[in-house]
Amino acid sequence: MRIDLHTHSKVSDGTDTPTRLVMKALEAGLDVISLTDHDTFDGVPEAAEAGKRVGVRVVPGVEMSTSVANSSVHLLGYGCDVHNVALSTELQALRHARSGRLPAMCVKLTDLGVPVTVEEVREHSQSARSLGRPHVADALVAKGFVADRAEAFDRYLAEGKPAYVARYNTDLAHAITLVHGAGGAAVIAHPWARGNRDVVTASLLESLVEGYGLDGIEVDHEDHDLDTRRLLFEMGARLGLVRTGSSDYHGLGKEGHDLGCNLTRKSAFMELVSRIRERGGVV
Ligand code: AMP
Ligand code: ZN
Ligand code: FE
Ligand code: FE
User: Fold this and answer.
1) Mean per-residue pLDDT over the chain, rounded
2) 153 lines ligand 1 (CB under 6 A)
3) pLDDT interval class at 114 (50, 70, 90)
4) Which of 171, 172, 227, 246 has the fewest beta carbons under 10 Å from its own?
5) Residue 165: its pLDDT value, please?
6) Percent of the chain residues past pLDDT 70, beyond the cut
7) By three-state DSSP, how is residue 211 classified?
8) Quick one: CA torsion of 165, 169, 171, 173, rounded to 10 degrees?
9) Which of 15, 35, 125, 149 to mutate to test the pocket of ligand 1 (most atoms within 8 A of CB)?
10) Burial, 25: exposed, middle or buried (Cβ in 10 Å; 0-12, 13-18, 19+)?
């Protein structure tokens, strides 16, 4: 069974519609996917519908923007009731913060000699309910200032680069509580990506398991080298965490993240399903 539990559509910063994503999952020989757009469930109904039509199981998902000690951590929520009021209200606040920072980023880019307006960013994100830096990157590409999203992040948009603007994130522990409250299972995405090894420590994970019932960590991810995967796999086993693997597919928006390039083992998936069922979630 081929299971890929972390993918994006153009409802956030991927480049495929949810339907096209499911068709590509079918072509890639996947049996199960989760659509985990950033801070929105809006693509889930379309993906689920397409999945039913073609025989790909689609688990409702979301990738929440959270933080711990001022560092950004992504939390995957699986099997949540997409209509849960507390969770939807928080996701709305996150999306509001995403669009709220666009003017400040555009001002910075303009000052840096690569002028981009909020309207231009919006033109490049017409299907997106959740606006992110990749859409700003697309506007920079369209104007010929950079070659691709990666160059836009390297030169301007990544944390610490001159056009970076911070935004509101949900507290990680609170986000886990919200996911559970909506019946779902909570899995930390790419825990050691981009310098986060000192943030998502063994002791933090232990406190999240004991205090908040964190369900899992994503181990097999392109941002983790083999050593990292081995260490996370062992650490997760010690803490009783479900260990997943996934592509973090973004369509043409992110190279080297082809659908199915990392997979979740069937036993790990079944454990997630059983936790979601126990909480009354949707799977
Ligand atoms: P934001 O949602 O605005 O915080 O932007 C983060 C998103 O940008 C994440 O989904 C990443 O997948 C994407 N991203 C981060 N770094 C890069 C990069 N170097 N090239 C392309 N996309 C990136
Ligand atoms: Zn993304
Ligand atoms: Fe992420
Ligand atoms: Fe992602």
Assistant:
1) 97
2) yes
3) very high
4) 227
5) 97
6) 100
7) helix
8) -120
9) 149
10) buried
d(CA 39, CA 189): 13
Ligand 1 within 6 A of CB of 14: no
How far apart (Å, rounded) are the C-alpha atoms in residues 282 and 272? 11
Q: Quick one: which of 256, 251, 198 has its CA closest to 223?
A: 256
Lowest model confidence (mean pLDDT) among 27-41, 123-137, 204-218, 226-240: 123-137
What is the average pLDDT across 95-108? 98
- pTM (global) more than 0.70: yes
Q: How far is Cα 188 from Cα 76, in angstroms, rounded to an integer?
A: 6
Q: Which ligand is nearest to the CA of 12?
A: 2
What residue has token string 């840096």? 112
Look-up of token digits 């097999």:
220
Q: Which residues of 80-103 are buried (b: 16+ CB within 10 A; e: fewer)?
A: bbbebeebbebbeebbebbbebbe
Ligand at minimal distance from the CA of 163 is 1
